[in-house]
Write a structure and sequence with these properties.
Elements (H helix, E strand, L loop, with lengths): L1 H8 L15 H26 L5 H16 L3 H12 L6 H8 L1
Helix pairs in contact: 2-3, 2-4
Length: 101
């Protein structure tokens, strides 16, 4: 996990920060990618920790960190990230634009 976090820290800032959506697909694409990267990091942390014997307190800490990260991500990006899970057609550019508007 440390290697992944160091790679994340080395990313350009536009892939580590999630500004509010603007309606400009060029700008919003970076925010979407940033949100997707953050969600993937949290998923990786949960998967790795699930394989370890950790106490309830540590599990609650991880859940709190997940909520903290997601609370800072604009909801439009979270909807766009989860849309492929809801509809197989939502991967298209049209649906991506629709989710961010």
């Amino acid at each position: 996990m440390e290697r992944v976090l160091s790679m994340y820290a080395a990313l350009p800032s536009q892939f580590r920060e999630t500004p509010p959506t603007t309606g400009d697909i060029g700008k919003d694409l970076f925010g979407f990618q940033s949100a997707n990267i953050q969600a993937t990091l949290q998923l990786l942390r949960m998967v790795l920790l699930s394989a370890e014997e950790i106490g309830v307190d540590r599990k609650c800490d991880v859940a709190g960190e997940l909520l903290s990260v997601f609370s800072k991500v604009p909801v439009e990006y979270l909807k766009a990230i989860s849309s492929p899970l809801v509809s197989p057609n939502s991967i298209s550019d049209y649906n991506f634009n629709y989710m961010l508007i």
